[in-house]
Specification:
The protein is an alpha+beta fold and about 80 residues long. Helix content is about 30%, strand content about 25%. It contains two helices and four strands, in the order ββββαα. It has a four-stranded antiparallel beta sheet with strand order 1-2-3-4, with helices on one face. A hairpin with a 2-residue loop joins β2 and β3. The N and C termini lie close together (about 10 Å).
């Protein structure tokens, strides 16, 4: 499975991230709640689990993105 996560400098509140998987697109709050779009159920569970493990890092990257800073890599779910 490949699930990419993106943060965009011009994004709006609430703090969130974007995920893509095989043509599916979704955005999730930092807490892992679905905001828009959809992923297959299995991939959604992986994204929610990943977000729970990396909430502090996601929030830090969100702040960096809002300040147009360079984002740091967050480890994938293993």
């Amino acid at each position: 499975m490949i699930c990419q996560r993106f943060a965009y400098y011009h994004d709006h509140m609430p703090p969130h991230f974007h995920a893509r998987y095989q043509g599916h697109k979704a955005s999730f709050t930092i807490e892992g709640d679905l905001l828009a779009g959809s992923l297959p159920a299995r991939q959604t569970k992986f994204v929610v689990a990943w977000a729970a493990l990396h909430e502090d890092e996601l929030l830090a990257n969100w702040e960096l993105a809002r300040e147009h800073g360079e984002l740091f890599r967050i480890d994938p779910l293993r």
